Fold each of these.
Amino acid sequence: MHRQVAAAILISVLLPAISSSETSVVVVQDPPGVIFAAAASGRLKASDPFFNLDGPFWTPSTTDIVRLEERFPSFLHSSKASGCKLLRQNTREHIRQYFGFSRNKVRLIYINGFCDAFSQDWKETLVFVMDGGDCFYQAVYDPTADRFLECYVNGVS
């Protein structure tokens, strides 16, 4: 895995005044991840200008996440995005954070993937890193259409 973690600038966005019950709906085990509740997704937009998420926000179900994770490897394999091709071998090693948001009235799931949370409580805190290479990525999944729309891998500095 090509990691430039030393060069990464960690920006940890704490979702203010959110208790565990509001934030972590469910922690998934394989791969490890957390589904954030709708209230936390709304606070994400307010606290981080780098994420272009719109409401109404919603809470993805575990069924949505299981389906998403089943489709992710084939999406990466067929993706034309050069950075996403780098993820083919090691995505099961990455921790995931899932947020439900809407774009043009379509419900979508934002996936924030990373291999190092820099000692942050990833179950309660949005992990956001500038650079860091293929250790950090983001993707957008449409659960209604059952397809991925976007994938971005952080750059290397």
Note: The beta strands are 9-14, 24-28, 33-36, 54-58, 95-103, 106-114, 125-130, 136-142, 147-153.
Amino acid sequence: MGLIVPNIKNPFYSKICWQIESILNRKKYKTIICNTNHNPDKEKSYIQALENNGVDGIILVSGENLESLLQISRNSDISCVLMDRTLQTNDIYSVNLDNVYGGKLATQHLIKSGHKKIAFITSSNTQAERERLKGYKMSLKEYNISVPEEYIISKPEEDFKSDYSNLLNLLELSNPPTAIFASNDYKAIKILGIFREKNISVPGDISLIGFDDIETSYLLGLTTIKQPIAKMTELTINNLLEKQNKDIDAKKNKSDILKPELILRKTTRKI
């Protein structure tokens, strides 16, 4: 089986890889893991390489080259499924999170804690992050809260450690935010580390919430939005193997969208 992920350094995707490989191995399948670094051309080449090498199935996680996968699904015996991505057609089964709801959940937690000046840090590399941004904006509009453009920062997450000037500039604005919503825990943990280096107290000086609930988030006390990774991988593999065994009637033209939950820890506070 081929498994394509966008960034294996992100612990969220690392955990997905570990869980999928472990389950498939117990079912006597070998897993080829491909890391794209959010590069669409690299992702497309991996899809083609997996097809050329005759894999039994392909799992595309947070992918963008959906047309390439659609062509394989329609024109070959290779089973294809999507994870952490929604497709507008029913040709391929997908399991995803309601990321708009998750974005609203995080933002509303901050608003109900008294915050009206809420920044959003993202890279917009994935559909999930774009939907979380949408949920953030929807919640602000619902509560009649407007934020300046400077409050929304889109920056590749790999650049945060080497160039965090935009992040620190937020705190130097004439009307700085009192809270930050990071589009995933990987970014939130990097932000937390930068703030600690600069002696910026979290949540004393600024509140911080992430998204995913990776294991490190628990250790650092990060307030976050939890994704049900185990359930997502279970549904993905079950459908993949059903397709492989030609037993697809039960899942035909069906996708699963799961709900996230708020995990309260120590990086947000009421003001």
Note: The first strand starts at residue 2 and ends at 5.
Amino acid sequence: MGWGWSGDGQANVPSGLSNVVAIAAGLNHSLALKSDGTVVGWGGNVSGDLTIPSSLTNAVAICAGYDYSAAVRSDGTVLVWGGNSYGQTNVPASATNVLSLDSESYTSGHLLALRRDGTVVAWGRNDAGQTTIPSGLGDVVGVAAGQFHSLALSVDDIDGDGLREPGNGNTSET
């Protein structure tokens, strides 16, 4: 189900869409990952963000950016398509064995890839250091991309009561 402003049809989920295991929302487009590894998109297709490449098969994770879309295949490779104003479609060679992705969808931003070994790869817009991975960052279990910042949740950040007090926005803890 979709709701809110839908000037480009991004909140109008296609009828008959079924077997969906994940969803993602970009600025004016939406994506659904189906259980068979295919991706369905709807809404605005300004920069080809809904032109799903025929080479995309066996997808296991998706994310949607401002005017681009991305998917992780079951072999851990990443495919990004659509707008490329900050190099978002130029997937780094180090983005292998990827489990999940996150992307900032407010501006033509950056992407974060969480690798199976707990490391992070970042690329795209970097005018505030948001793709500069702090040295020593490891054992990561989750990532999130903001407009001008990035977040990583590591095993060390989790205790029996949940998340420990976060850092100050740099790399140190309080």
Note: Residues 20-157 form a domain with the Methylamine Dehydrogenase; Chain H fold (CATH 2.130.10.30).
